[in-house]
Design goal:
Radius of gyration of chain A: 30 Å
Shape of chain A: globular
Structural class of chain A: alpha/beta
Strand order of the largest sheet of chain A: 3-2-1-4-5-6-7
Number of helices of chain A: 19
Number of domains of chain A: 2
CATH class of the largest domain in chain A: Alpha Beta
Largest interface: A-B, 88 and 89 residues
Oligomer: homodimer
CATH superfamily of the largest domain in chain A: Glycogen Phosphorylase B
CATH architecture of the largest domain in chain A: 3-Layer(aba) Sandwich
Number of strands of chain A: 13
Largest sheet of chain A: 7 strands, parallel
């Protein structure tokens, strides 16, 4: 039986009425403090939509930004910083190259940590230059903004929002060290919520749970080195003591680029809105160049290969290994690669400086996706139902890869250890073994079956915060408790004390009663004796 | 600036595309196992919508049902039970009257508990008669249903769903004794999540937190008396050991009639969908009779008074007290009351056997709402922005009233202790003190500002479960852990043991080393002495 159209009409009317609500019809002013890099790329779609809905958007970014450029649907206010775009590009490239250095594990970790700290110091300095730019901050204060949209990965935006006394909407893919859980006061039992970088699944073995618990213990200290700088900067600028927790918990709404086809189900909070897959909604037709590549691929179709916006070249030896593997499959491979052409590159492999990843994956001829398993790429793979060969490089990419692998939607390779054959075999498996395609199609159908598109949801909640000056009715009282109150330690202590005192009194009474009885009996026993004798 | 219409088009198209998804265009078969009473009234709107969208709905109910009657948009399958509709009506009336008996607190609680247990036994027997009705169960098994929609307040539906191996959607307003939290594995820290019947707010004093903790301790035992019957019945019918937790955790999606303008913000789970206010969407024009009453009320407007579907008459003395109070205000009072007319009833008070509550509250002349603060009534008050005088009678009504009072949207009265003046003063306050109106209008505007209407959301998720045969990707791994694994007690124990063993070894080594050193020194000290002497 077909669904009655009369049933759809009120549904659509209801949705339209909601979108067209009178409060929503007034355009407002929104301040955006974004993160540079891939983080910016999905946020920009929300900004475009907000602009189309009549809002005026001002984006504030350092003059050194790589990805944040002038746009037709927002005003870009750049502020000077004592370093150049090239310095930031060098950071990105260095980060990419660093991944491929085959050093002992501990040495690599220490090197990466030091590198991250150095780079974070550069980005902190950008934030400091914004907050101390009196002219710019004064113009923002007088700008008549209704809210701040920001990515709190490095929490400059939250400081700006607090400085301007504006409600904030956070737009992100999660934070390291469970800072997102702490910022939203969201419980995350370590028994089944895997910690980031643990590579644990949700159904853990005993030892995995031990590992998860140990990470839970050390997490607060791990991130403190970088995040405490922002707390100090905030305290200085806001003239009061500010903690990292204060900065994070300031968010009225958290737009989290998560979806439970990828993430493991876990507790959430009323002000967390899941918008995973927001980056793969708008599909455009392919350009002539790419259309030609795809058409020429014949019945075998294409494989899309990209290691993300930050890593476009890799060491020559690794590139040759990969080129060798790619030559072993009949598909045409479109590889985003800006390094020098590997000498052994096969005829089926086409190097491009940039590729329309989502549009290519959406083509019916896409057979597989070789990805670094960044969250954007993973969701594009899911949306378009393309099985993946994953080569995680850093950050949350290892976890993402493990999650997709556990769902049977792809194969994970260690980019350092893998051989040419490993890659070729993995590609052949995900292309020829039907289970990979079936699994990713099942995930895709679950992911795309949703009451509201993630982009519309993001736009709705940004406007909601603008309309209502925040969302205080979604803020849990947990934010106003100390850690021992939150865990009811004072109450448990009090109840234990009551029980102990009560037990002590009962015990004393019993002893007293027993003695009384015992003595009386002894006395009674003794008295007749004395009488009879 | 007006919102650009070009921005709305893709938004609406996106929403339409989603609603019109190919999977959704096929009508399916849905089995509904409802609860009788007010619980049925909001569920029926979802059934109507599903019918309009092309689905075939079969409702199963005992022959004694009071509220569940034949309907144009579903097939009602009644099954025989050894009691009549009148017996159930007598239970409802007795429950209503019991509330007004002015006995000592403990006596009342014991009486209510005994009454509830007796009534629950009757309703359990209805469930048993359904499950042992071989002919009906066989016809249901052969019915080709895709899912079960049920209210698990008394968990007969969950047993039916498990018996038929069908995924279940739970539709409810919460469960007593935190069974909803346990059923969804949703954390609920007692430090800020008030327990039902505690009348605590979310920001609690120390003593309120102690009370909350004590209730948390005794909750599992409180409800066991009634709910364990269903576990036994399920174990018998399903031929395996079934616990109450098993019955509750079977729900694929929990459609919870909550909204955070009324409930305090607290953790939630991915398979919990909030549809609070679902009962007050469809507003119809008033009948001639009620239109006439409202028009005749003049500038003072009307007050709507109802104690809910279960309590339509109260003891005469209390009715006279109330009638006296109602005569002291200039508004016209429409009072749903089926008892004998109080002799002191004033001219401004009109007794009616039934009233279109939501439609009357939606009239611009509605000035106040006297309610027993059942969840349906409260949401109708919020939707329509009408301040309330609340007289909670039983169950969650005390909590609902306290919540609305804490938000400044109404005044709570103790129906047993209140005098005629108390009621008159409360009515005058909520009508004349502008803050009550402002507060309820603020709540109303927050409540109605949502991306999808609750009815559409409920319909979407029922269809989702029908399409995908459940929602396993939203089921947390917590369901597969024992209680000590969930709380990581085994891991903590293991880590403590490791630390203790390590400390012990270090201590022993130190002692050993110390002794060695000490003896050596003593030896050295002694040796020179012997040499010098």
């Amino acid at each position: 039986m077909a669904a009655g159209s009369q049933g759809l009409l009120p549904l659509i009317l209801g949705l339209m009425l909601c979108v067209l609500s009178p409060e929503g019809s007034q355009g407002g002013k929104l301040l955006v403090v974004p993160m540079d890099g891939s983080h910016w790329l999905s946020m920009v779609a929300v900004i475009q939509q907000l602009h189309q809905r009549g809002h005026e958007v001002v984006v504030v970014a350092p003059s050194s930004s790589v990805f944040i450029k002038e746009g037709a649907f927002y005003t870009l206010k750049k502020f000077p910083v004592p370093f150049q775009k090239e310095d930031i590009e060098a950071i990105f490239t260095g980060f990419g190259y660093g991944v491929f250095e085959n050093e002992p594990f501990l040495q690599r970790v220490i090197k990466m940590y030091k590198g991250a700290k150095k780079n974070a110091a550069v980005l902190l300095s950008a934030c400091s230059h914004l907050l101390h730019n009196e002219e710019l901050m004064a113009s923002l204060a007088a700008g008549g903004f209704e809210a701040v949209l920001t990515d709190p990965f490095l929490p400059c935006g939250p400081i700006v929002a607090q400085y301007l006394s504006l409600p904030a909407v956070y737009f992100l893919n999660g934070l390291p060290c469970s800072l997102d859980f702490r910022g939203t006061q969201c419980p995350s039992p370590p028994s089944y919520v895997p910690r980031s970088l643990s590579m644990n699944p949700d159904h853990m073995t005993f030892l995995q749970r031990v590992k998860n618990m140990l990470i839970t213990f050390i997490e607060p200290f791990l991130c403190n080195a970088i995040y405490s700088w922002y707390a100090s900067l905030a305290s200085e600028v806001l003239w009061r003591d500010v903690t990292v927790q204060d900065l994070m918990s300031f968010g009225s709404i958290w737009l989290l680029r998560h979806d439970f086809v990828m993430q493991y189900p876990r507790p959430t909070m009323p002000n967390i809105v899941f918008i995973g897959g927001i980056n793969c909604i708008s599909q455009k037709p392919l350009s002539q160049e790419f259309e030609a590549y795809v058409n020429a691929s014949g019945e075998h179709g294409i494989v899309v290969f990209s290691l993300g916006s930050m890593v476009s070249q890799i060491p020559e030896k690794k590139a040759m290994e990969i080129a060798d593997a790619l030559g072993k499959i009949p598909q045409t491979v479109l590889w985003r690669y800006t390094g020098s052409r590997p000498s052994n590159l096969a005829n089926n492999t086409i190097l491009v400086k940039w590729l329309p990843q989502n549009d290519l994956l959406g083509h019916p001829k896409a057979r597989a996706f070789i990805t670094h398993s960044g969250s954007h790429g993973i969701y594009e793979g899911i949306c378009n139902g393309v099985p993946m060969v994953m080569m995680p490089l850093f950050g949350d990419q290892m976890d993402n890869a493990k999650r997709m692998e556990s769902r049977g939607a792809g194969i994970t390779l260690n980019v350092l250890d893998m051989t040419s054959d490993d890659l070729a075999n993995a590609l052949k498996a995900v292309i020829n073994d039907k289970s990979y395609k079936e699994n990713i199609m099942r995930l895709s159908s679950l992911h795309k079956d949703r009451p509201v598109e993630p982009l519309d949801l993001a736009v709705f909640w940004v406007e909601f915060v603008m309309r209502h000056k925040g969302a205080p009715h979604l803020r849990p009282a947990a934010h106003d408790l100390t850690w021992y109150q939150y865990h009811s330690l004072d109450v448990i202590g009090f109840l234990l004390a009551v029980v102990l005192v009560f037990t002590f009194i009962v015990f004393k009474c019993c002893v007293f009663g027993f003695r009384k009885c015992f003595r009386k009996k002894e006395h009674i026993k003794k008295t007749p004796k004395s009488k009879t004798h």
